[in-house]
Amino acid sequence: MTIQLQAKQVSMRFKDRVLFHIPSLTIGPNEAVYLKGDNGVGKTTLLKILAGLLKPTSGDVLPRHQSLFTGLLRGPGRKDVIYLHQSPYLFDGSVFQNVVYGIKHKNLDLHDKRAEVISALRLVGLETLADEHVSVLSGGEKQRVAMARAWVLKPSILLMDEPSASLDQESIERLVFMAQDLLEHGSSIVITSHQTNALTRLCRKQWWIKDCTLIESPLLQIIDKKHKDKENNYVASNSD
């Protein structure tokens, strides 16, 4: 199932400081959004509000219904929306135990659950490490385990907070592969990043938090305009 989130008149204030005020925002279904902005403008805060993990000072995000998962832990959260932290929390256990946790309440027998987990680990290239303790993993491998754990839940919307920070090229490529798979099945993704990379190139819409509000634009048009400007400059320079 895919869903659409709508934010209306959402504001976040810390004491006398207004972090941002967003009159309206919509995400999903089947959208890929690049969320950008300087440090401290509220990108992580906005993602947590959309996930239902943080309550805004004012405004509302619809639908309001709750989920069993708070970034893969029980607690308040929005159904079918998963927030993937830059430094994901992994349980004290094996790689397999961490991934299967996401579907432990799913109505599947043990054989089918194991098959889903191994499929997820195969997508991120970690199936041979299924029985290893997470303490032996590198930072990039831990991020890939967290992505696999999110993928098995088949979220309608996946919010990825700086997912490629400090990752090697192989880890980034694995995350791209899983994000593409989710998009192909109708899910939406939102990615924050301080630099363009293979993950942000999946996006076709841009949200930019600037001057305490959010500016939205179709990223494809921005990319096309840059290419057209380069092409026009090339033609002009060669016609002189």
UniProtKB/TrEMBL annotation:
<keyword id="KW-0813">Transport</keyword>
<protein>
    <submittedName>
        <fullName>ABC-type tungstate transport system ATP-binding protein</fullName>
    </submittedName>
</protein>
<dbReference type="Pfam" id="PF00005">
    <property type="entry name" value="ABC_tran"/>
</dbReference>
<dbReference type="InterPro" id="IPR003593">
    <property type="entry name" value="AAA+_ATPase"/>
</dbReference>
<dbReference type="InterPro" id="IPR003439">
    <property type="entry name" value="ABC_transporter-like_ATP-bd"/>
</dbReference>
<feature type="domain" description="ABC transporter">
    <location>
        <begin position="5"/>
        <end position="235"/>
    </location>
</feature>
<dbReference type="InterPro" id="IPR017871">
    <property type="entry name" value="ABC_transporter-like_CS"/>
</dbReference>
<dbReference type="GO" id="GO:0005524">
    <property type="term" value="F:ATP binding"/>
</dbReference>
<dbReference type="InterPro" id="IPR050153">
    <property type="entry name" value="Metal_Ion_Import_ABC"/>
</dbReference>
<dbReference type="GO" id="GO:0016887">
    <property type="term" value="F:ATP hydrolysis activity"/>
</dbReference>
<keyword id="KW-0067">ATP-binding</keyword>
<dbReference type="InterPro" id="IPR027417">
    <property type="entry name" value="P-loop_NTPase"/>
</dbReference>
<keyword id="KW-0547">Nucleotide-binding</keyword>
<comment type="similarity">
    <text>Belongs to the ABC transporter superfamily.</text>
</comment>
